[in-house]
Amino acid sequence: MPVAGQLVDSYGRVHDYLRIAVTDRCNLRCVYCMPAEGMTFEPDHRILSYEEIAEIVETAAALGIRKLRITGGEPLVRKGLDTLIAMLAAIPGIEDIALTTNGIFLAPFADRLRAAGLTRVNISLDSLRADRFAMITRGGDVSKVLAGLRASQLAGFSPIKLNVVLMKGINDDEVEDFLRMTIEEPIQIRFIEYMPIGHEDNSWRAGYMPLDYVLETCRRLGLDCEPAKEVYGNGPAQSYRIAGAAGTFGLIHPVSDHFCGSCNRLRLTADGSIKPCLYWSDEYNMRGHLGNPSALAAIFQRALGSKPETHEMARALAGGQRSQAPTARRMSQIGG
After folding, report:
1. Fewer C-beta within 10 Å: the chain N or C terminus?
2. Is the backbone peptide bond immediately before 92 cis, with ω within 30 degrees of 0?
């Protein structure tokens, strides 16, 4: 049963998790995240300051938010991110602060971020092959990402997760490589279905593939795997461990088998809006209410009141009619 001080929506879902985009800018141009022509970024004066983010989180923590995830764009393009981490870690009620990053700039900052209070790291890595990684990211250097992974391990982050967006005809032939990586490394590989965030064109439909393919690959290779129930901070992933493996792999399938019934998250965009659902267009701007904790709390409650029971990405895949308007923001403008 919900208790006083909790954020509960009209479907009884308790929300204790806030994803915070600290910038809409990124040093990469991933094919599923930005259009080829790039993005028009928000001017600096429209991006929340660290002090404003901390003020919003103070209100959120008083309402029951316990877990934070720092996202972007790419959060490490913003200077002094460890300063924000320290500010958030000092807020009463905040128990866990994670970071999602493309890893390019991570190696020099891993120790500093951990010392500031960062709990966990997720690194986006859609290919282990240098040429293919450069193609998917439109110019990225995979060796820098792998250096960021090693630096995070040396800094003592645990668990470390690698996020792999699975795309048909692009990186599906690397599933075996990622699976075998979990045998030797104490990391969590998370395969994620390609989502139509901000675009529902033919390239998305052509690139989409359900994650049953990962388990089929295990069977084809003769890899004995079983559900792994001890994985910390696993969120919506269904986790598995190959027999004798040091790490695990997980499947996140928002399109083919959505997990909306257990959704516990809200999103704060870099320009100060609360999004109750990643897919839909509804959002509620906080900027005009800064300095007024009760008004900020009311915006959180209003956002929760509008949260739908589910998104309809499967209908988008089938080309069907949706019940409301999907977001026009691209993934880089929301933070995933």
Report:
1. N
2. no
